[in-house]
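PROTEIN DATA CARD
Card holder: UPF0145 protein CSC65_14560
Chain length: 127
Origin: Pseudoxanthomonas daejeonensis
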Amino acid sequence: MTDPYNSSGSRRVIASLDDSMVTTALELPGYRITRNVGLVRGITVRSRSIVGNLLGGLQTLFGGNITIYTELCEQARHETYRDMLKHARQLGANAIVAVRYDATDLMAGLTEVLCYGTAVVVEPHDA
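Structure generated from the sequence above:
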């Protein structure tokens, strides 16, 4: 088990925000929330290209996973997640809880993807 105190005897706060410090849960196992920094988000608006629509349409004729749309969705989610992490780091957070994704069609072929959560500062639970 790691020591929750640094060499000077004061509480050690986790300094970095990486994927292991992001959760859809309301708490982060092994850590105590010491400060709520606030809502953080990443947002992107994506459109499908004419070529993408054509290829996607062809794939629908054969059924199964429409890979061109799957890749587009995954790229949008990755981008919004990355932007949410950047926003949290700018606010001084070292963790994000209650992470969610949302998507809204703005118009035909134009979709907004949003990733959001609550940025917090956490420290390890006492031994």
